[in-house]
Design goal:
The structure holds three protein chains of three kinds. Chain A has 18 helices and 21 strands. Chain A is an alpha+beta fold. In chain A, helix 3 packs antiparallel against helix 12 and helix 7 packs across helix 8. Chain A is globular, with a radius of gyration of 23 Å. By secondary structure, chain B is of the alpha+beta class. Helices cover 19% and strands 25% of the residues of chain B. Chain B has a five-stranded antiparallel beta sheet with strand order 3-2-1-4-5. In chain B, a hairpin with a 5-residue loop joins strand 2 and strand 3. The longest helix of chain B is centred in the middle third of the chain and has 12 residues. Chain B is globular. The relative contact order of chain B is 0.23. By secondary structure, chain C is of the alpha/beta class. Helices cover 34% and strands 19% of the residues of chain C. Chain C contains seven helices and eight strands; from the N terminus they run E-E-E-E-H-H-E-E-H-E-H-E-H-H-H. Chain C is globular and about 70 Å long. The chains are: A alpha+beta, B alpha+beta, C alpha/beta. Chains A and B meet through strand 13, helix 12 and helix 14 of A and helix 2 of B.
Chain lengths: 552, 106, 177
């Protein structure tokens, strides 16, 4: 958990003052919408179907209890009592009034929260693995580097009007839980042959209309060079990214059109001029930032204490939840607990103000006051003592965030879709809701095993459908909602785009099709622990296609 | 429902001009007397492309009253009432097509 | 349109040179890029200062060898949201060391003043009179900045480290005495 110092607080306060002035000038007509729109976007303010939407950054998915309570308070005071957690570790409020935004932002700023650069043609929220700092398979805490990047790119005078949005993600674990390969810049902390840690840098990943997996342009970048190298990449992009066509304006298009090698050479040429200048990271500066992170003071505890194993034997539901939602922690005797925001029939990723308040309290009691937000739209408590799991579970169960479906068929990632979003072609939330109803049986869900369904209501792919094990994309056909399915995508270190299953199907049939796909999987799999993704890899899409389209 | 942001200008039935209110983002419709209303029943309905274009141009000039004006289809019903002409406009008028979280009881 | 320099609205002593037209005697001129490159020797031989208007889709590396004879470089924001000239400005100031007037032209609005100043611009053809009048206030909105640029300010990281060092020195001298 990074603690703001006086500089961070001052900058945020000055930003709020500036935005208050900009809103006033817009309401008076001094600023036209054309002039105001990029300014409000740079504070995370969208205009959606029903109202304005405010997107608040949760840097690298880390929140304190106090911050979560502030979000709950904003939901109650300025919105309709709930918020939505997104695929980029942000939170969205859907019913915000422009005229009240400066006050809402002032409230948020007091807790070190803001919507700076959560939209607009600038760098967005720098995301990481939501288990950073506690995952057993990481080599170090990527969040220190995420914070250095966040600061460097905040209100960067040269890079505030890029050709298009720019997204950076970091991971430091062998398992990439941050989808770095489908980001504009993906940074992977690795160890080289000499035992030094540094970054593998990939560029030009992204989803949307023209999905790409990122290309490695720098196999090993020393840590000292992180800011200067990123600066060089973004400077090349700012100058040479396309500005003639918004569908060709991301850096992935520039990388594709130049070729990865030629692009890397351009970046290197620029980088050579700046790498030893003011952006070279001074170890004292890195220590300063690292020193502002607060870490949990773990006790010396035993793994799998008696109370835990007894509780698991005594209560089947509790045992099931532990098996599903509790992951190993790097500190002995502790655990990472995922809170499923995917209840049966619920809109994926939403939490009410009351739930947020309770989770904040539970975090204080059981998780050193810290909560994490994952890009799969669930929350996590990252520092839970295993002996506290039974009591914690009862409390989570009571507020409906203990559905044992993490990573399973009903743990769906969905964009807000046409119910909220002005860019959408179709709805996505009701599709997700129906699927969770069809697969409400926890035995069946367990039987199916790990299965990631991603739903996007339009080609902008905010639901990351390209990299879902099953991807669902809403398209418009003759004024009706239709959905195209892909199979076999993955977002991790072996990132891959899904393969088209067949012709789009109408809204009413989507859940049926998912049931057909899942039945086909159960018949085709070689053994119970061959997960869906592996089966698709082994047999291809044809057998699924036959099953789905035979009767249609 | 292709997003109107990608819309080509083509009229194939009655339409209204709709936008969002600047101060709070509420859904509004252009009226015949060059104002805005939140009630679709009071919206100006036109049926030709030139009329729609004129209505839109006039509405778009009101930068303080409204944001993002565009032409949206409506349906006329036997009882004379007008209803949203597609799912998107239905959602804009009535809200999301499912219960919002606060009513789910927690 | 008002020209702002040194935080105030001033008279523009430079005249834009139109294609083909001869440069008037004794008058500072801003020539379009092609004209400047074609007639460089002749233009800078004049006693009056010479400026160039450089488009935002042309590499400034091309202009770099010619900066010595120039009193002014004008860069272009065709729309304020087209941010290419920010990079051009920083390169001209920080990479190529240009010390003359660096002028922002085109769609130059109040909410970009701070970014423009920090990128190295020191003169602004401000589109709206009200914005020009508000220049001093608008450019003083922020007192802290995360990134180092060529504007001479120390980066926030450096300032923090310096703050720590001062604190360390103070506390160690306290110990000594």
């Amino acid at each position: 958990m990074y603690l703001y110092d006086q500089f961070d607080r001052t900058l945020l306060a000055e930003r709020v003052t500036e935005f208050r002035d900009q809103v006033a000038r817009r309401l008076s007509g001094e600023l036209t919408e054309d002039e105001f729109k990029p300014l409000r976007l740079m504070n995370g303010v969208y205009l959606q179907l029903h109202a304005y939407m405010l997107r608040i950054a949760i840097p690298y998915g880390t929140l304190s209890s106090e911050q979560l309570r502030t979000l709950a308070q904003v939901a109650r005071k300025y919105d309709r009592g709930y918020g939505h957690f997104t695929t980029r570790q942000n939170i969205q409020f859907n019913w915000i009034k422009l005229a009240e935004l400066p006050d809402a932002m002032a409230d948020l700023a007091r807790a070190g929260l803001h919507g700076m650069q959560t939209s607009g043609n600038c760098t967005r929220n720098v995301t990481t693995d939501q288990w950073a700092g506690v995952a057993p398979d990481e080599i170090e805490d990527a969040r220190v580097w995420a914070e250095l990047l966040r600061q460097h790119m905040t209100l960067h005078p040269e890079f505030s009007f890029l050709p298009r949005k720019f997204k950076i993600a970091l991971t430091a674990a062998t398992s990439d839980r941050a989808a770095t390969k489908v980001h504009d810049i993906g940074l992977r902390l690795i160890r080289n042959g000499a035992g030094e840690t540094g970054f593998e840098v990939s560029v030009g990943g992204g989803l949307g209309r023209t999905p790409f997996i990122g290309k490695v342009v720098k196999p090993f970048l020393p840590k000292r060079d992180l800011l200067s190298y990123v600066e060089a990449i973004v400077r090349v992009y700012n100058q040479f990214g396309r500005r003639d066509n918004i569908y060709k304006a991301r850096i992935k298009i520039l990388v594709h059109e130049l070729g990865a090698d030629a692009f890397a050479k351009e970046v290197d040429a620029e980088w050579q001029s700046i790498k030893d200048g003011a952006l070279a990271l001074d170890p004292a500066a890195v220590s300063y930032i690292a020193g502002r992170f607060r870490y949990a003071a773990y006790e010396r505890l035993d793994d799998n204490p008696g109370t835990l194993s007894q509780a698991r034997k005594a209560d089947r539901r509790f045992d099931n939840w532990v098996g599903n939602s509790v992951a190993n922690h790097k500190a002995p005797g502790y655990a990472i607990v995922t809170l499923s925001l995917k209840p049966e029939g619920g809109p994926p990723g939403d939490a009410t103000a009351a739930q947020m308040d309770t989770i904040a309290d539970l975090a204080e009691r059981y998780s050193f006051g810290e909560i994490r937000v994952g890009h799969e739209q669930n929350l996590a408590l990252p520092h839970v003592a295993q002996c506290d799991l039974p009591a914690l579970w009862r409390a989570l169960d009571a507020i409906g965030v203990a559905t044992p479906n993490v990573g399973l068929v009903s743990d769906i990632i969905a964009c807000p879709g046409l119910d909220y979003c002005s860019l959408a072609n179709t709805r996505s939330i009701p599709v997700a809701q129906e699927i969770t109803r069809r697969f409400r049986d926890p035995h069946l869900a367990r039987e199916l095993g790990r299965l990631h369904i991603n739903i996007s209501g339009c080609i902008n792919a905010c639901g990351h459908h390209h990299v879902g094990h099953i991807g669902i994309l809403g398209v418009e056909k003759n004024g009706e909602e239709y959905f195209q399915l892909t199979l076999g995508g993955r977002a991790d270190e072996q990132a891959e785009l899904g393969t088209l299953l067949g012709p789009a199907v109408p809204y009413a049939q989507v859940a049926d099709v998912i049931e057909d796909v899942v039945s086909a999987y159960l018949e085709l799999r070689e053994r119970p622990n061959e997960i869906f993704l592996e089966t698709v890899k082994r047999v291809g899409v044809e057998p699924f296609k036959e099953r789905v389209y035979a009767a249609r | 429902m292709t997003s109107p942001l990608q819309q080509k200008f083509r009229i194939s039935g009655p339409v209204v001009v709709t936008a969002n209110r600047l101060a709070d983002g509420a859904v509004i419709y252009r009226t015949l007397d060059r104002a805005w209303t939140t009630k679709l029943a009071l919206a100006a309905v036109v049926t030709t492309a030139p009329a729609a274009q004129a209505l839109l141009a006039d509405a778009s000039a009101d930068d303080i009253g409204a944001v993002g004006a565009y032409v949206a289809p409506v349906e006329r019903h036997a009882d004379g009432g007008i209803r949203p002409g597609n799912l998107r406009e239905h959602i804009r008028q009535s809200g999301p097509t499912f219960e919002l979280p606060v009513t789910l009881g927690i | 349109m008002r020209l702002v320099k040194g935080g105030r609205v001033i008279e523009d002593r430079f005249v834009r040179l139109l294609d083909g037209a001869p440069a008037p005697d004794g008058v500072p001129v801003i020539a379009p890029a092609e004209r400047f490159l074609a007639d460089e020797a002749e233009l800078i031989a004049r006693p009056a200062p010479t400026g160039v208007l450089w488009p935002n889709n042309r590499k400034v590396a091309e202009l770099a060898p010619h900066l010595g004879g120039l009193a002014l470089v004008a860069l272009v924001f065709p729309r304020f949201s087209d941010g290419r000239a920010y990079s051009q400005a920083r390169l001209i100031r920080e990479r190529y060391g240009f010390r003359g007037e660096l002028r922002a032209t085109g769609d130059v609005l109040r909410d970009q003043f701070t970014f423009l100043l920090r990128s190295g611009f020191d003169a602004f053809e401000v589109k709206k009179d009200a914005d020009a009048a508000a220049f001093a206030e608008a450019s003083a909105r922020y007192s802290v900045f995360y990134q180092p640029t060529g504007d001479g300010r120390v980066s926030m990281l450096r300032e923090r480290v310096m703050g720590l060092r001062k604190a360390n020195i103070a506390s160690s001298s306290a110990r000594v005495s």
